[in-house]
Protein backbone atom coordinates (compact mmCIF):
# COMPACT_ATOMS: atom_id res chain seq x y z
CA UNK A 1 0.00 0.00 0.00
CA UNK A 2 2.79 2.40 0.87
CA UNK A 3 5.07 1.44 -1.94
CA UNK A 4 5.10 4.95 -3.32
CA UNK A 5 7.48 6.15 -0.62
CA UNK A 6 10.41 7.73 -2.35
CA UNK A 7 13.63 8.62 -0.64
CA UNK A 8 13.53 12.35 -0.04
CA UNK A 9 15.67 13.67 -2.89
CA UNK A 10 18.47 15.78 -1.47
CA UNK A 11 20.27 18.69 -3.02
CA UNK A 12 19.41 22.37 -3.42
CA UNK A 13 15.75 23.39 -3.34
CA UNK A 14 13.98 26.46 -4.71
CA UNK A 15 12.67 27.57 -8.12
CA UNK A 16 15.60 26.03 -10.05
CA UNK A 17 14.85 22.71 -8.38
CA UNK A 18 11.20 22.90 -9.41
CA UNK A 19 12.14 23.81 -12.98
CA UNK A 20 14.70 21.00 -13.26
CA UNK A 21 12.26 18.52 -11.76
CA UNK A 22 9.56 19.60 -14.20
CA UNK A 23 12.01 19.21 -17.09
CA UNK A 24 13.00 15.70 -15.93
CA UNK A 25 9.34 14.76 -15.50
CA UNK A 26 8.67 15.95 -19.04
CA UNK A 27 11.57 13.76 -20.19
CA UNK A 28 10.08 10.85 -18.24
CA UNK A 29 6.69 11.31 -19.87
CA UNK A 30 8.46 11.43 -23.22
CA UNK A 31 10.14 8.11 -22.39
CA UNK A 32 6.77 6.65 -21.42
CA UNK A 33 5.34 7.87 -24.72
CA UNK A 34 8.24 6.28 -26.63
CA UNK A 35 7.56 2.99 -24.83
CA UNK A 36 3.86 3.10 -25.67
CA UNK A 37 4.59 3.98 -29.29
CA UNK A 38 7.13 1.17 -29.58
CA UNK A 39 4.78 -1.30 -27.91
CA UNK A 40 2.03 -0.28 -30.34
CA UNK A 41 4.38 -0.50 -33.32
CA UNK A 42 5.70 -3.96 -32.50
CA UNK A 43 2.23 -5.30 -31.69
CA UNK A 44 0.97 -3.92 -34.97
CA UNK A 45 3.93 -5.46 -36.77
CA UNK A 46 3.20 -8.78 -35.12
CA UNK A 47 -0.57 -8.77 -35.75
CA UNK A 48 -0.86 -7.04 -39.12
CA UNK A 49 2.72 -7.09 -40.38
CA UNK A 50 2.65 -3.29 -40.32
CA UNK A 51 4.99 -1.52 -37.88
CA UNK A 52 4.82 2.25 -37.55
CA UNK A 53 7.07 3.68 -40.25
CA UNK A 54 10.33 5.01 -38.88
CA UNK A 55 9.75 3.67 -35.37
CA UNK A 56 13.43 2.82 -34.87
CA UNK A 57 14.68 6.29 -35.71
CA UNK A 58 11.95 7.83 -33.54
CA UNK A 59 13.14 5.70 -30.61
CA UNK A 60 16.74 6.77 -31.22
CA UNK A 61 15.96 10.46 -31.48
CA UNK A 62 13.40 10.70 -28.67
CA UNK A 63 15.35 8.53 -26.22
CA UNK A 64 18.39 10.76 -26.73
CA UNK A 65 16.23 13.83 -26.01
CA UNK A 66 14.71 12.33 -22.88
CA UNK A 67 18.13 11.32 -21.55
CA UNK A 68 19.47 14.85 -22.07
CA UNK A 69 16.42 16.10 -20.16
CA UNK A 70 17.31 13.81 -17.23
CA UNK A 71 20.87 15.10 -16.79
CA UNK A 72 20.14 18.34 -14.85
CA UNK A 73 17.97 16.40 -12.40
CA UNK A 74 20.75 13.85 -11.86
CA UNK A 75 23.16 16.66 -11.07
CA UNK A 76 20.81 18.45 -8.69
CA UNK A 77 19.83 15.31 -6.76
CA UNK A 78 23.37 13.94 -6.64
CA UNK A 79 22.33 10.81 -8.53
CA UNK A 80 25.71 10.42 -10.21
CA UNK A 81 27.35 7.57 -8.34
CA UNK A 82 30.59 7.95 -6.45
CA UNK A 83 32.71 5.28 -4.83
CA UNK A 84 33.04 5.86 -1.10
CA UNK A 85 36.32 4.10 -0.56
CA UNK A 86 38.48 6.13 1.73
CA UNK A 87 36.20 9.05 2.42
CA UNK A 88 33.58 7.45 4.66
CA UNK A 89 35.47 8.60 7.75
CA UNK A 90 36.50 11.97 6.32
CA UNK A 91 35.16 15.13 7.96
CA UNK A 92 32.07 16.82 6.54
CA UNK A 93 34.28 19.67 5.40
CA UNK A 94 36.65 17.41 3.46
CA UNK A 95 33.69 15.70 1.80
CA UNK A 96 32.25 19.11 0.89
CA UNK A 97 35.56 20.14 -0.68
CA UNK A 98 35.67 16.94 -2.72
CA UNK A 99 32.05 17.45 -3.73
CA UNK A 100 33.04 20.93 -4.84
CA UNK A 101 35.68 19.44 -7.12
CA UNK A 102 33.08 17.15 -8.71
CA UNK A 103 30.60 20.00 -9.12
CA UNK A 104 33.23 22.20 -10.81
CA UNK A 105 34.00 19.38 -13.27
CA UNK A 106 30.28 18.99 -13.94
CA UNK A 107 30.02 22.71 -14.63
CA UNK A 108 33.02 22.63 -16.96
CA UNK A 109 31.63 19.60 -18.77
CA UNK A 110 28.20 21.14 -19.28
CA UNK A 111 29.64 24.42 -20.57
CA UNK A 112 32.09 22.66 -22.90
CA UNK A 113 29.36 20.45 -24.31
CA UNK A 114 26.96 23.40 -24.59
CA UNK A 115 29.56 25.29 -26.58
CA UNK A 116 30.48 22.36 -28.84
CA UNK A 117 26.91 21.14 -29.41
CA UNK A 118 25.84 24.67 -30.27
CA UNK A 119 28.35 24.52 -33.12
CA UNK A 120 27.11 21.04 -33.88
CA UNK A 121 23.63 22.54 -34.24
CA UNK A 122 24.95 25.27 -36.55
CA UNK A 123 26.72 22.63 -38.67
CA UNK A 124 23.55 20.58 -39.03
CA UNK A 125 21.57 23.75 -39.84
CA UNK A 126 24.02 24.61 -42.58
CA UNK A 127 24.33 21.15 -44.12
CA UNK A 128 20.95 19.71 -43.27
CA UNK A 129 21.04 15.98 -42.52
CA UNK A 130 17.81 14.12 -41.90
CA UNK A 131 16.79 10.71 -40.59
CA UNK A 132 16.36 8.10 -43.32
CA UNK A 133 12.66 7.37 -43.30
CA UNK A 134 10.78 10.24 -41.69
CA UNK A 135 13.20 12.88 -42.97
CA UNK A 136 13.40 14.68 -39.63
CA UNK A 137 16.33 17.12 -39.58
CA UNK A 138 19.01 16.01 -37.10
CA UNK A 139 19.22 19.52 -35.63
CA UNK A 140 15.72 19.30 -34.12
CA UNK A 141 16.79 17.15 -31.14
CA UNK A 142 19.75 19.49 -30.61
CA UNK A 143 17.39 22.22 -29.41
CA UNK A 144 16.02 20.38 -26.34
CA UNK A 145 19.52 18.97 -25.78
CA UNK A 146 20.99 22.47 -25.61
CA UNK A 147 18.26 23.63 -23.24
CA UNK A 148 19.03 20.57 -21.08
CA UNK A 149 22.75 21.37 -21.07
CA UNK A 150 22.02 24.97 -20.05
CA UNK A 151 19.90 23.63 -17.19
CA UNK A 152 22.69 21.20 -16.33
CA UNK A 153 25.09 24.13 -16.12
CA UNK A 154 22.64 26.00 -13.86
CA UNK A 155 22.26 22.87 -11.70
CA UNK A 156 26.05 22.54 -11.50
CA UNK A 157 26.32 26.19 -10.41
CA UNK A 158 23.80 25.41 -7.66
CA UNK A 159 25.88 22.38 -6.63
CA UNK A 160 29.05 24.48 -6.60
CA UNK A 161 27.36 27.09 -4.38
CA UNK A 162 26.03 24.46 -2.02
CA UNK A 163 29.44 22.79 -1.77
CA UNK A 164 31.11 26.16 -1.15
CA UNK A 165 28.67 26.83 1.67
CA UNK A 166 29.13 23.35 3.17
CA UNK A 167 32.90 23.65 3.03
CA UNK A 168 32.59 27.09 4.68
CA UNK A 169 34.55 28.78 1.90
CA UNK A 170 31.49 30.99 1.43
CA UNK A 171 29.02 32.12 4.09
CA UNK B 1 54.12 4.00 -29.20
CA UNK B 2 55.77 3.38 -25.82
CA UNK B 3 55.02 6.93 -24.72
CA UNK B 4 51.37 6.46 -25.68
CA UNK B 5 51.25 3.47 -23.38
CA UNK B 6 52.81 5.49 -20.58
CA UNK B 7 50.27 8.27 -21.06
CA UNK B 8 47.53 5.65 -21.01
CA UNK B 9 48.80 4.17 -17.77
CA UNK B 10 49.14 7.63 -16.23
CA UNK B 11 45.53 8.25 -17.26
CA UNK B 12 44.49 5.05 -15.53
CA UNK B 13 46.28 6.13 -12.35
CA UNK B 14 44.62 9.55 -12.54
CA UNK B 15 41.24 7.88 -12.98
CA UNK B 16 41.69 5.73 -9.90
CA UNK B 17 42.86 8.76 -7.91
CA UNK B 18 39.84 10.81 -8.99
CA UNK B 19 37.42 8.01 -8.12
CA UNK B 20 39.13 7.58 -4.75
CA UNK B 21 38.53 11.24 -3.90
CA UNK B 22 34.82 10.79 -4.49
CA UNK B 23 34.60 12.31 -7.93
CA UNK B 24 31.38 11.05 -9.56
CA UNK B 25 32.57 8.06 -11.58
CA UNK B 26 31.01 9.34 -14.79
CA UNK B 27 32.81 12.69 -14.55
CA UNK B 28 36.11 11.03 -13.63
CA UNK B 29 35.82 8.95 -16.81
CA UNK B 30 34.81 11.94 -18.92
CA UNK B 31 37.67 14.07 -17.56
CA UNK B 32 40.39 11.43 -17.99
CA UNK B 33 39.00 10.11 -21.29
CA UNK B 34 38.55 13.56 -22.81
CA UNK B 35 41.85 14.85 -21.45
CA UNK B 36 43.72 11.80 -22.69
CA UNK B 37 42.21 12.12 -26.15
CA UNK B 38 43.35 15.74 -26.25
CA UNK B 39 46.92 14.67 -25.44
CA UNK B 40 47.11 11.67 -27.75
CA UNK B 41 45.51 13.34 -30.75
CA UNK B 42 44.95 16.85 -32.07
CA UNK B 43 42.76 18.87 -29.63
CA UNK B 44 40.98 20.44 -32.61
CA UNK B 45 39.86 17.03 -33.77
CA UNK B 46 38.57 16.21 -30.29
CA UNK B 47 36.68 19.50 -30.11
CA UNK B 48 35.16 18.76 -33.49
CA UNK B 49 34.17 15.27 -32.32
CA UNK B 50 32.42 16.76 -29.30
CA UNK B 51 29.95 18.53 -31.61
CA UNK B 52 27.99 15.34 -32.07
CA UNK B 53 29.64 12.68 -29.88
CA UNK B 54 27.16 12.97 -27.00
CA UNK B 55 24.10 12.98 -29.22
CA UNK B 56 25.25 10.04 -31.31
CA UNK B 57 26.10 8.11 -28.13
CA UNK B 58 22.71 8.84 -26.54
CA UNK B 59 20.80 7.93 -29.68
CA UNK B 60 22.22 4.41 -30.09
CA UNK B 61 19.22 2.14 -30.60
CA UNK B 62 20.57 -0.77 -28.55
CA UNK B 63 20.94 1.48 -25.51
CA UNK B 64 17.28 2.51 -25.53
CA UNK B 65 16.40 -0.80 -23.90
CA UNK B 66 18.07 0.43 -20.70
CA UNK B 67 15.78 3.34 -19.75
CA UNK B 68 12.78 1.22 -20.74
CA UNK B 69 13.74 -1.65 -18.44
CA UNK B 70 14.51 0.87 -15.70
CA UNK B 71 11.08 2.44 -16.17
CA UNK B 72 9.40 -0.96 -16.23
CA UNK B 73 11.09 -1.92 -12.96
CA UNK B 74 10.23 1.38 -11.31
CA UNK B 75 6.56 1.19 -12.24
CA UNK B 76 6.49 -2.48 -11.19
CA UNK B 77 7.90 -1.46 -7.80
CA UNK B 78 4.81 0.65 -7.20
CA UNK B 79 2.21 -1.52 -8.87
CA UNK B 80 1.72 -3.93 -5.96
CA UNK B 81 3.24 -6.89 -7.83
CA UNK B 82 5.60 -7.50 -4.94
CA UNK B 83 2.76 -7.96 -2.45
CA UNK B 84 0.99 -10.50 -4.70
CA UNK B 85 4.22 -12.39 -5.28
CA UNK B 86 5.03 -12.60 -1.60
CA UNK B 87 1.52 -13.73 -0.67
CA UNK B 88 1.61 -16.52 -3.22
CA UNK B 89 5.11 -17.62 -2.29
CA UNK B 90 4.11 -17.60 1.35
CA UNK B 91 1.08 -19.78 0.64
CA UNK B 92 3.38 -22.34 -0.98
CA UNK B 93 6.42 -22.21 1.28
CA UNK B 94 5.44 -20.35 4.45
CA UNK B 95 4.58 -23.42 6.51
CA UNK B 96 8.13 -24.81 6.24
CA UNK B 97 10.72 -24.08 8.87
CA UNK B 98 12.38 -20.89 7.61
CA UNK B 99 9.53 -20.75 5.13
CA UNK B 100 8.80 -17.04 5.39
CA UNK B 101 12.40 -16.29 4.44
CA UNK B 102 12.17 -18.81 1.61
CA UNK B 103 9.01 -17.07 0.44
CA UNK B 104 10.89 -13.79 0.41
CA UNK B 105 13.56 -15.35 -1.81
CA UNK B 106 10.97 -16.83 -4.16
CA UNK B 107 9.15 -13.51 -4.35
CA UNK B 108 12.44 -11.69 -5.05
CA UNK B 109 13.04 -14.13 -7.89
CA UNK B 110 9.57 -13.45 -9.27
CA UNK B 111 10.07 -9.73 -8.99
CA UNK B 112 13.51 -10.07 -10.58
CA UNK B 113 11.75 -11.52 -13.59
CA UNK B 114 10.11 -8.15 -14.29
CA UNK B 115 12.75 -5.84 -12.81
CA UNK B 116 16.34 -5.45 -13.92
CA UNK B 117 17.79 -3.77 -10.86
CA UNK B 118 19.02 -5.19 -7.56
CA UNK B 119 18.38 -2.13 -5.46
CA UNK B 120 14.81 -1.76 -6.68
CA UNK B 121 14.17 -5.44 -5.97
CA UNK B 122 15.70 -5.27 -2.51
CA UNK B 123 13.83 -2.14 -1.49
CA UNK B 124 10.49 -3.19 -2.99
CA UNK B 125 10.52 -6.69 -1.52
CA UNK B 126 11.98 -5.39 1.72
CA UNK B 127 8.96 -3.17 2.28
CA UNK B 128 6.63 -6.12 1.81
CA UNK B 129 8.52 -9.00 3.39
CA UNK B 130 10.41 -7.40 6.27
CA UNK B 131 7.29 -6.74 8.39
CA UNK B 132 6.18 -10.37 7.85
CA UNK B 133 9.58 -11.77 8.79
CA UNK B 134 9.48 -9.76 11.97
CA UNK B 135 5.92 -10.78 12.75
CA UNK B 136 7.02 -14.40 12.70
CA UNK B 137 9.97 -13.50 14.94
CA UNK B 138 12.73 -14.32 12.48
CA UNK B 139 16.16 -13.42 13.78
CA UNK B 140 17.31 -9.98 12.60
CA UNK B 141 20.33 -11.55 10.88
CA UNK B 142 18.29 -13.99 8.84
CA UNK B 143 15.51 -11.51 8.06
CA UNK B 144 17.70 -8.69 6.80
CA UNK B 145 20.35 -10.98 5.30
CA UNK B 146 17.74 -12.85 3.26
CA UNK B 147 16.31 -9.67 1.79
CA UNK B 148 19.69 -8.13 1.00
CA UNK B 149 20.73 -11.34 -0.76
CA UNK B 150 17.34 -11.79 -2.43
CA UNK B 151 17.67 -8.37 -4.01
CA UNK B 152 20.60 -9.67 -6.03
CA UNK B 153 18.14 -11.90 -7.89
CA UNK B 154 16.71 -8.73 -9.43
CA UNK B 155 19.73 -8.54 -11.65
CA UNK B 156 20.68 -12.22 -11.94
CA UNK B 157 17.31 -13.12 -13.41
CA UNK B 158 16.64 -11.43 -16.74
CA UNK B 159 15.87 -8.66 -17.53
CA UNK B 160 19.09 -7.29 -16.18
CA UNK B 161 20.44 -3.80 -16.71
CA UNK B 162 24.02 -4.84 -15.95
CA UNK B 163 23.85 -7.68 -18.47
CA UNK B 164 22.66 -5.30 -21.20
CA UNK B 165 25.63 -3.04 -20.48
CA UNK B 166 28.03 -5.99 -20.56
CA UNK B 167 26.61 -7.11 -23.90
CA UNK B 168 27.10 -3.61 -25.29
CA UNK B 169 30.69 -3.35 -24.01
CA UNK B 170 31.88 -6.66 -25.49
CA UNK B 171 29.53 -6.50 -28.49
CA UNK B 172 27.65 -9.65 -27.59
CA UNK B 173 23.99 -10.26 -28.37
CA UNK B 174 21.70 -9.01 -25.58
CA UNK B 175 19.30 -11.83 -26.40
CA UNK B 176 21.96 -14.52 -26.03
CA UNK B 177 23.11 -13.04 -22.73
CA UNK B 178 19.55 -12.97 -21.39
CA UNK B 179 19.02 -16.61 -22.35
CA UNK B 180 22.37 -17.63 -20.88
CA UNK B 181 21.52 -16.00 -17.54
CA UNK B 182 18.37 -18.07 -17.05
CA UNK B 183 19.75 -21.36 -15.69
CA UNK B 184 22.42 -19.69 -13.53
CA UNK B 185 19.61 -17.51 -12.14
CA UNK B 186 17.52 -20.55 -11.24
CA UNK B 187 20.55 -22.11 -9.56
CA UNK B 188 20.94 -18.95 -7.50
CA UNK B 189 17.33 -19.21 -6.30
CA UNK B 190 17.79 -22.89 -5.46
CA UNK B 191 21.05 -22.24 -3.59
CA UNK B 192 19.48 -19.42 -1.59
CA UNK B 193 16.55 -21.64 -0.59
CA UNK B 194 18.93 -24.42 0.47
CA UNK B 195 21.02 -21.87 2.38
CA UNK B 196 17.96 -20.89 4.40
CA UNK B 197 17.06 -24.53 5.01
CA UNK B 198 20.55 -25.21 6.37
CA UNK B 199 20.56 -21.98 8.35
CA UNK B 200 17.36 -22.77 10.24
CA UNK B 201 18.57 -26.31 10.85
CA UNK B 202 21.74 -25.01 12.48
CA UNK B 203 19.91 -22.23 14.34
CA UNK B 204 16.36 -23.50 14.84
CA UNK B 205 15.16 -20.38 16.66
CA UNK B 206 16.17 -18.06 13.87
CA UNK B 207 13.37 -18.97 11.47
CA UNK B 208 10.20 -20.60 12.84
CA UNK B 209 7.62 -22.09 10.51
CA UNK B 210 4.75 -19.87 9.45
CA UNK B 211 1.11 -20.81 9.17
CA UNK B 212 -0.50 -23.13 6.68
CA UNK B 213 -3.00 -21.10 4.71
CA UNK B 214 -6.55 -22.39 4.09
CA UNK B 215 -7.22 -23.96 0.73
CA UNK B 216 -9.36 -21.09 -0.54
CA UNK B 217 -6.69 -18.52 0.21
CA UNK B 218 -4.00 -20.74 -1.29
CA UNK B 219 -5.80 -20.84 -4.61
CA UNK B 220 -6.66 -17.16 -4.57
CA UNK B 221 -3.07 -16.12 -3.77
CA UNK B 222 -1.71 -18.36 -6.50
CA UNK B 223 -4.11 -17.03 -9.11
CA UNK B 224 -3.17 -13.47 -8.28
CA UNK B 225 0.39 -13.91 -9.58
CA UNK B 226 -0.94 -14.73 -13.05
CA UNK B 227 -0.33 -11.13 -14.28
CA UNK B 228 3.34 -11.26 -13.20
CA UNK B 229 3.70 -14.55 -14.99
CA UNK B 230 2.00 -13.10 -18.06
CA UNK B 231 4.34 -10.10 -18.09
CA UNK B 232 7.39 -12.36 -17.76
CA UNK B 233 6.21 -14.73 -20.48
CA UNK B 234 5.47 -11.92 -22.93
CA UNK B 235 8.59 -9.85 -22.27
CA UNK B 236 11.31 -12.42 -21.57
CA UNK B 237 9.63 -15.26 -23.45
CA UNK B 238 9.15 -12.88 -26.37
CA UNK B 239 12.87 -12.10 -26.34
CA UNK B 240 13.93 -15.75 -25.90
CA UNK B 241 11.83 -17.06 -28.73
CA UNK B 242 12.61 -14.19 -31.06
CA UNK B 243 9.15 -12.56 -31.20
CA UNK B 244 10.57 -9.25 -30.01
CA UNK B 245 13.85 -7.44 -30.05
CA UNK B 246 14.87 -6.29 -26.57
CA UNK B 247 13.73 -2.67 -26.97
CA UNK B 248 10.18 -3.47 -28.16
CA UNK B 249 9.95 -6.19 -25.52
CA UNK B 250 10.87 -3.72 -22.79
CA UNK B 251 8.38 -1.24 -24.26
CA UNK B 252 5.61 -3.84 -24.12
CA UNK B 253 6.72 -4.56 -20.55
CA UNK B 254 6.36 -0.87 -19.63
CA UNK B 255 2.87 -0.90 -21.10
CA UNK B 256 1.88 -4.09 -19.27
CA UNK B 257 3.07 -3.05 -15.80
CA UNK B 258 1.51 0.39 -16.21
CA UNK B 259 -1.79 -1.10 -17.37
CA UNK B 260 -1.66 -3.55 -14.46
CA UNK B 261 -1.03 -0.76 -11.96
CA UNK B 262 -3.83 1.37 -13.39
CA UNK B 263 -6.25 -1.56 -13.40
CA UNK B 264 -5.40 -2.49 -9.81
CA UNK B 265 -5.57 1.19 -8.85
CA UNK B 266 -2.17 0.87 -7.24
CA UNK B 267 -0.60 3.32 -9.68
CA UNK B 268 -1.94 6.85 -9.88
CA UNK B 269 -0.22 10.10 -10.80
CA UNK B 270 1.80 10.34 -7.53
CA UNK B 271 3.22 6.84 -8.02
CA UNK B 272 3.84 7.38 -11.72
CA UNK B 273 5.53 10.69 -11.00
CA UNK B 274 7.91 9.05 -8.50
CA UNK B 275 8.59 6.20 -10.92
CA UNK B 276 9.40 8.67 -13.71
CA UNK B 277 11.71 10.75 -11.53
CA UNK B 278 13.51 7.65 -10.24
CA UNK B 279 13.88 6.52 -13.85
CA UNK B 280 15.30 9.94 -14.72
CA UNK B 281 17.93 9.60 -12.00
CA UNK B 282 18.98 6.07 -12.90
CA UNK B 283 18.89 6.50 -16.68
CA UNK B 284 20.69 9.84 -16.62
CA UNK B 285 23.38 8.32 -14.44
CA UNK B 286 23.73 5.26 -16.70
CA UNK B 287 24.00 7.31 -19.89
CA UNK B 288 26.52 9.70 -18.40
CA UNK B 289 28.68 6.76 -17.32
CA UNK B 290 28.30 5.23 -20.78
CA UNK B 291 29.46 8.50 -22.32
CA UNK B 292 32.44 8.59 -19.97
CA UNK B 293 33.24 4.96 -20.74
CA UNK B 294 33.13 5.74 -24.46
CA UNK B 295 35.64 8.59 -24.08
CA UNK B 296 37.81 6.53 -21.77
CA UNK B 297 37.82 3.58 -24.14
CA UNK B 298 38.90 5.71 -27.09
CA UNK B 299 41.74 7.10 -24.99
CA UNK B 300 42.81 3.72 -23.60
CA UNK B 301 42.66 2.01 -26.98
CA UNK B 302 44.83 4.75 -28.44
CA UNK B 303 47.27 4.32 -25.57
CA UNK B 304 47.21 0.55 -26.14
CA UNK B 305 46.54 -0.22 -22.48
CA UNK B 306 44.05 -3.13 -22.85
CA UNK B 307 46.27 -4.74 -25.48
CA UNK B 308 49.31 -4.36 -23.24
CA UNK B 309 47.43 -5.92 -20.33
CA UNK B 310 46.35 -8.83 -22.54
CA UNK B 311 49.89 -9.32 -23.87
CA UNK B 312 51.34 -9.21 -20.37
CA UNK B 313 48.91 -11.85 -19.14
CA UNK B 314 49.42 -14.04 -22.20
CA UNK B 315 53.21 -13.90 -21.79
CA UNK B 316 53.08 -14.55 -18.07
CA UNK B 317 53.25 -18.30 -18.58
CA UNK B 318 50.33 -18.85 -16.21
CA UNK B 319 47.74 -21.43 -17.24
CA UNK B 320 44.47 -19.89 -18.52
CA UNK B 321 42.53 -21.12 -15.50
CA UNK B 322 44.95 -19.41 -13.11
CA UNK B 323 44.55 -16.14 -14.97
CA UNK B 324 40.78 -16.52 -14.91
CA UNK B 325 40.84 -17.11 -11.17
CA UNK B 326 43.03 -14.02 -10.72
CA UNK B 327 40.51 -12.00 -12.70
CA UNK B 328 37.66 -13.44 -10.62
CA UNK B 329 39.39 -12.40 -7.41
CA UNK B 330 40.05 -8.94 -8.87
CA UNK B 331 36.37 -8.59 -9.81
CA UNK B 332 35.21 -9.63 -6.34
CA UNK B 333 37.62 -7.12 -4.84
CA UNK B 334 36.55 -4.29 -7.17
CA UNK B 335 32.92 -5.15 -6.56
CA UNK B 336 33.41 -4.41 -2.89
CA UNK B 337 34.44 -0.86 -3.77
CA UNK B 338 32.18 0.18 -6.64
CA UNK B 339 28.65 -0.09 -7.95
CA UNK B 340 28.06 -2.86 -10.46
CA UNK B 341 27.47 -0.72 -13.51
CA UNK B 342 30.59 1.44 -13.20
CA UNK B 343 32.53 -1.71 -12.52
CA UNK B 344 31.39 -3.46 -15.66
CA UNK B 345 32.18 -0.34 -17.67
CA UNK B 346 35.58 0.19 -16.07
CA UNK B 347 36.88 -3.34 -15.68
CA UNK B 348 35.46 -5.26 -18.62
CA UNK B 349 37.21 -3.21 -21.36
CA UNK B 350 40.51 -4.28 -19.73
CA UNK B 351 39.54 -7.77 -18.63
CA UNK B 352 37.81 -8.93 -21.77
CA UNK B 353 40.87 -8.58 -24.07
CA UNK B 354 42.83 -10.65 -21.53
CA UNK B 355 40.15 -13.34 -21.37
CA UNK B 356 39.59 -13.46 -25.11
CA UNK B 357 43.28 -14.25 -25.62
CA UNK B 358 43.09 -17.30 -23.34
CA UNK B 359 42.42 -20.80 -24.61
CA UNK B 360 39.61 -22.60 -22.80
CA UNK B 361 38.79 -24.83 -25.74
CA UNK B 362 35.72 -22.85 -26.73
CA UNK B 363 34.88 -20.29 -29.39
CA UNK B 364 35.28 -16.59 -28.65
CA UNK B 365 31.50 -16.16 -28.88
CA UNK B 366 30.97 -18.82 -26.20
CA UNK B 367 33.76 -17.35 -24.11
CA UNK B 368 32.03 -13.98 -24.23
CA UNK B 369 28.81 -15.47 -22.88
CA UNK B 370 30.47 -17.61 -20.22
CA UNK B 371 32.69 -14.82 -18.94
CA UNK B 372 29.76 -12.40 -19.02
CA UNK B 373 27.65 -14.57 -16.74
CA UNK B 374 30.60 -14.98 -14.39
CA UNK B 375 31.26 -11.24 -14.38
CA UNK B 376 27.59 -10.55 -13.69
CA UNK B 377 27.59 -12.81 -10.64
CA UNK B 378 30.87 -11.41 -9.38
CA UNK B 379 30.02 -7.74 -9.62
CA UNK B 380 26.71 -8.42 -7.92
CA UNK B 381 28.54 -9.94 -4.96
CA UNK B 382 29.76 -6.42 -4.28
CA UNK B 383 26.19 -5.49 -3.40
CA UNK B 384 26.21 -7.73 -0.34
CA UNK B 385 29.82 -7.41 0.83
CA UNK B 386 31.35 -4.73 3.06
CA UNK B 387 32.32 -1.91 2.92
CA UNK B 388 29.78 -0.64 0.37
CA UNK B 389 27.17 -3.39 0.08
CA UNK B 390 24.37 -1.27 -1.34
CA UNK B 391 21.68 -3.94 -0.87
CA UNK B 392 22.67 -4.30 2.76
CA UNK B 393 22.44 -0.53 3.22
CA UNK B 394 18.98 -0.41 1.64
CA UNK B 395 17.57 -3.19 3.82
CA UNK B 396 19.33 -1.97 6.91
CA UNK B 397 17.83 1.49 6.45
CA UNK B 398 14.40 -0.16 6.72
CA UNK B 399 15.27 -2.03 9.93
CA UNK B 400 16.84 0.75 11.91
CA UNK B 401 17.07 -1.22 15.17
CA UNK B 402 19.32 -3.86 13.54
CA UNK B 403 23.02 -2.94 13.58
CA UNK B 404 24.66 -3.00 10.15
CA UNK B 405 27.15 -5.63 11.32
CA UNK B 406 24.33 -8.10 12.04
CA UNK B 407 22.90 -7.65 8.58
CA UNK B 408 26.33 -8.31 7.08
CA UNK B 409 26.57 -11.37 9.32
CA UNK B 410 23.18 -12.60 8.09
CA UNK B 411 24.22 -12.16 4.48
CA UNK B 412 27.43 -14.23 4.89
CA UNK B 413 25.84 -17.67 4.32
CA UNK B 414 24.34 -16.37 1.07
CA UNK B 415 27.73 -15.00 0.08
CA UNK B 416 29.24 -18.45 0.62
CA UNK B 417 26.43 -19.98 -1.47
CA UNK B 418 27.27 -17.52 -4.22
CA UNK B 419 30.94 -18.53 -4.13
CA UNK B 420 29.84 -22.14 -4.60
CA UNK B 421 27.76 -21.05 -7.55
CA UNK B 422 30.71 -19.18 -9.09
CA UNK B 423 32.81 -22.34 -8.77
CA UNK B 424 30.02 -24.35 -10.40
CA UNK B 425 29.73 -21.88 -13.28
CA UNK B 426 33.51 -21.95 -13.79
CA UNK B 427 33.71 -25.75 -13.76
CA UNK B 428 30.63 -26.32 -15.93
CA UNK B 429 30.50 -23.67 -18.68
CA UNK B 430 27.55 -25.54 -20.20
CA UNK B 431 25.32 -24.20 -17.40
CA UNK B 432 25.59 -20.87 -19.19
CA UNK B 433 26.07 -22.08 -22.74
CA UNK B 434 23.57 -24.91 -23.13
CA UNK B 435 20.27 -23.00 -23.21
CA UNK B 436 21.34 -20.40 -25.81
CA UNK B 437 22.44 -23.27 -28.08
CA UNK B 438 19.12 -25.08 -27.66
CA UNK B 439 17.01 -21.99 -28.30
CA UNK B 440 19.14 -20.85 -31.23
CA UNK B 441 19.11 -24.28 -32.84
Description:
The complex is a heterodimer of chains A (171) and B (441). Chain A has helices at 15-48, 55-77, 92-126, 139-166. Chain A has 171 residues and is mainly α. Chain A is elongated, with a radius of gyration of 20 Å. The model of chain A is unreliable at 1-8 (pLDDT under 50). Chain A starts with 14 loop residues before the first helix and ends in a 5-residue tail after the last helix. By secondary structure, chain B is mainly alpha-helical. Chain B contains 23 helices and no strands. Chain B has helices at 2-20, 25-40, 43-49, 53-58, 65-78, 81-93, 99-112, 118-135, 140-156, 161-170, 174-180, 182-202, 215-224, 226-240, 246-264, 269-303, 305-314, 320-337, 340-356, 364-381, 390-398, 404-427, 430-440. In chain B, helix 5 (65-78) packs antiparallel against helix 16 (269-303) and helix 9 packs across helix 21 (390-398). The longest helix of chain B has 35 residues, at 269-303. Chains A and B meet through helix 1, helix 2, helix 3 and helix 4 of A and helix 2, helix 4, helix 5, helix 8 and helix 15 of B.
